[in-house]
Automatic annotation (TrEMBL):
Protein's name in the database: Glutathione synthetase
Keywords, ordered alphabetically: ATP-binding, Glutathione biosynthesis, Ligase, Magnesium, Manganese, Metal-binding, Nucleotide-binding
Cofactor field: Mg(2+); Mn(2+)
Database matches in Pfam families: GSH-S_ATP, GSH-S_N
Family membership noted in the UniProt record: Belongs to the prokaryotic GSH synthase family.
Catalytic reaction list: gamma-L-glutamyl-L-cysteine + glycine + ATP = glutathione + ADP + phosphate + H(+)
Organism ancestry: Bacteria, Bacillati, Actinomycetota, Actinomycetes, Kitasatosporales
Top-level taxon in the UniProt lineage: Bacteria
Keyword Transmembrane: no
InterPro entries referenced in this protein's UniProt entry, alphabetically: ATP-grasp, ATP_grasp_subdomain_1, Glut_synth_pro, GSHS_ATP-bd, GSHS_N, PreATP-grasp_dom_sf
Length: 305
């Protein structure tokens, strides 16, 4: 049966949204109707969740259709795919979507995205976590750095390698830390530097609690940041026994919490992030292996919706 699908995203049909475009294109290939919904155009209107949207018919016509007004409760499936940062606008859309998730299948579950931020979720697996501090206290960050000597700091709610810096106990840059903790900013995540980053930051991609593929991002020469947006390159990889153990623990939790799409980041067999916001992996796995995780995703959705 054809489904009415809304994709909350930006720039469907473009390189900037290639993973989400693959989700939308697979829906079209199965005969479903797809609307692109703009994150800033979701409104609660007298008890109804209304959005401005465009009918999406494929990349060739992306962005050309007129905007129309749709009731999101009339959809069968809603994909929530805006990129972080996770700010109050982002969270407000999730709060509103959470109110209709009993009527519509929302992927990923809004309550789970709210409750399990990608840099906090790994705390549920302490045996796989590198030494980690989450704090706004400069003295705590300095003490943590003194204990671990070489530390990476990053904003709690950013993505794509933005705002990452490296500090050491011998040259602790308090001014840098204070600048990152400007008034009103969230805490910083500090983690012991993992030398294995030179061999890459592995993304293990899950669909519906099962591993759907993996690839490794290797930093460009002279860098310790492996994110693709920061110049990292992607390569084939294999999953280690320890990573398989983590996957066995994580998979059932994802299913239980309505998390259909997830990407975990692993360095030196340590999990650093568990991404359930707008996880990338569809395009990289297709490029490297010729496999299409979006097919498994829609097979699962069609059994559930």
């Amino acid at each position: 049966m054809p489904l009415a699908v809304a994709v909350i995203s930006e720039k469907l049909g473009t390189y900037a949204s290639q993973d989400t475009t693959r989700i939308a294109d697979e829906a079209l290939a199965r005969g479903h109707t797809v609307h692109e919904v703009f994150p800033a155009a979701v409104s609660q209107v007298e008890g109804r969740l209304i959005a401005k949207a465009r009918r999406y018919t494929g990349a060739a016509a992306a962005g050309t259709q007129e905007r129309i007004r749709v009731d999101l409760a009339d959809m069968d499936v809603i994909h929530f795919r805006p990129n972080p940062p996770v700010d109050m606008s982002y969270l407000t859309t999730l709060y509103l979507l959470d109110r209709i998730k009993d009527q519509v299948l929302v992927i990923n579950d809004p309550e789970s995205i709210i409750s399990f931020p990608e840099k906090i979720f790994p705390l549920e697996f302490p045996e796989f976590l590198p030494p980690t501090l989450i704090s706004r206290d400069v003295d705590e960050i300095r003490d943590f750095t003194d204990r671990h000597r070489d530390v990476v700091i990053k904003p709690l709610y950013e993505y794509g390698g933005r705002g990452i810096a490296r500090v050491t106990s011998t040259a602790f840059d308090g001014e840098l830390v204070r600048a990152r903790l400007a008034e009103g900013s969230p805490p910083l995540v500090s983690q012991a530097f993992l030398p294995g980053i030179t061999a890459g930051d592995k993304r293990i991609f899950f669909i519906g609690g099962d591993v759907a593929g993996a690839f490794v991002r290797i930093p460009k020469h002279g860098s310790y940041i492996a994110n693709i947006a920061q110049g990292g390159s992607i390569h084939r990889t294999t999953i280690t026994p320890r990573e398989e153990e983590l996957a066995r623990l994580l998979g059932p939790k994802l299913v239980e919490r309505g998390i259909y799409i997830c990407g975990i980041d692993v360095i030196d067999d340590h999990v650093t992030e568990i991404n359930i916001t707008s996880s990338v992996g569809f395009s990289q796995i297709e490029e490297l292996y010729g496999e299409k995780p979006q097919v498994a995703l829609w097979d699962l959705i069609e059994k559930t919706a």
